TrEMBL record:
Native organism: Thermoproteus tenax (strain ATCC 35583 / DSM 2078 / JCM 9277 / NBRC 100435 / Kra 1)
Protein name from the UniProt record: DNA primase large subunit PriL
SUPFAM superfamilies: PriB N-terminal domain-like
Entry keyword set: 4Fe-4S, DNA replication, Iron, Iron-sulfur, Metal-binding, Nucleotidyltransferase, Primosome, Transferase
Gene: priL
Biological-process GO terms, alphabetical: DNA replication initiation; DNA replication, synthesis of primer
Length: 343
């Protein structure tokens, strides 16, 4: 159990294990060793350091990871919190996929249950069907909708669904768990007694200094804000990225095609994405260049139509702008302004 607590410190069972071992928040704060390790974990997570193996001092690692979350929470910086949760959830998936001894479906289903998901073995849902061989794990549709990535490929209509269970292969199941784990971290950061916890943390000098430093960190400012002639859909996407939210793949694709059309260059668009919690400069630049037709298949992509935007859940007006494509919105807005000027 100590290895599970170290690998997945934000599971309920990990918290219960530490408590049973007498490792509470108060005792962790009294240990210089755990406090130092917690601050290191904060820094590593924000820099997106790679996986840490759980070989030495698994209990210290587990306690320090939980303390690290409360240090981040104390900074009251939503950008850093999202970045931390994103980094930790990606490490969760890496460990889930690569740790020997936890590769059985049953073991992963148990982790899913700890995260509050309703999960079953597909062989018990579709008895005798070959579907269970390809899609061995079933998840209740409500949980699937809550945690599946917001992407057309993940729409329920494209998935085998039997009696309210969505059937998944292991890879996709692990991806769903990644979002559930991230949601769990964010939920822990908003627990009711968080004010009390942060009060305790502030009495420990190294943590106090770390929190003060984190409070002053902000994402790189976006050089261009949404402007009046930009349509509501694109303004909403820009605003969401500006707030450090994890915009879905479709939203990133749409805003990139739109801004290229508006004359932004690749570097300006890469800068826009800098405040995304999972920002990776190399990958982002390649993707923007790909959409611009500068690399890969050299095909320049068009701005999605309003119909498509609406089907992706990205049209806040429900097709109410009177245009067929977001690029037409600016022209229509300037014609309207022109017409309203006194002659
Ligand atoms: S109608 Fe078109 S331009 Fe207007 S918000 Fe929807 S997608 Fe954007």
């Amino acid at each position: 159990m100590q290895e599970i607590a170290c690998l997945f410190p934000y599971l309920d069972k990990s918290g219960e294990y530490l408590f049973a071992r007498g490792i509470t928040l108060e005792s962790a704060l009294n240990s210089d060793h755990i406090v130092k390790r917690a601050i290191d974990i904060v820094e590593e997570s924000l820099k997106r350091m790679k996986n840490r193996p759980c070989v030495d001092e698994p209990e210290v690692e587990a306690a320090a990871s939980r303390l690290a979350l409360y240090i981040i929470t104390g900074a009251s910086n939503i950008y850093l919190l999202r970045r931390f949760a994103d980094s930790q959830s990606k490490m969760f998936t890496y460990r889930l996929r690569n740790t020997p001894g936890i590769q059985s479906y049953e073991c992963k289903a148990e982790i899913a249950s700890d995260l509050g998901l309703s999960v079953a073995m597909a062989r018990n849902v579709v008895k005798g069907s070959l579907l269970a061989a390809t899609y061995p794990i079933a998840i209740r549709w409500r949980d699937y909708i809550r945690y599946a990535p917001q992407d057309p490929d993940w729409a329920m209509i494209n998935r085998p669904v039997v009696s309210g269970w969505v059937l998944l292969d292991v890879n996709d199941f692990e991806r769903v768990l990644e979002d559930a784990y991230e949601a769990k971290i964010l939920k822990m950061a908003s627990r009711e007694d968080v004010g009390y916890i942060v009060g305790l943390l502030s009495k420990v000098e190294p943590i106090y200094r770390e929190i003060a430093k984190l409070r002053s960190l902000r994402p790189v400012t976006i050089r261009a804000e949404g402007r009046g002639e930009d349509p509501p859909c694109m303004r909403a996407i820009i605003e969401s990225i500006r707030k450090g939210e994890n915009a879905p793949h479709t939203a990133r694709f749409a805003i990139t095609t739109y801004l290229l059309r508006r004359g932004w260059d690749v570097e300006q668009i890469v800068d826009l994405f800098r405040s995304s919690p999972d920002f990776n400069e190399k990958i982002t630049r390649y993707q923007v260049q790909h959409i611009a037709g500068q690399v890969g298949g050299r095909k320049e992509y068009s701005v999605p139509s309003c119909e498509t935007m609406n089907s992706w859940g990205l049209c806040p007006t429900n097709l109410g702008c009177g245009v067929k494509n977001p690029v037409q919105y600016g022209r229509r807005a300037s014609r309207a302004t022109e017409a309203s000027r006194p002659q």
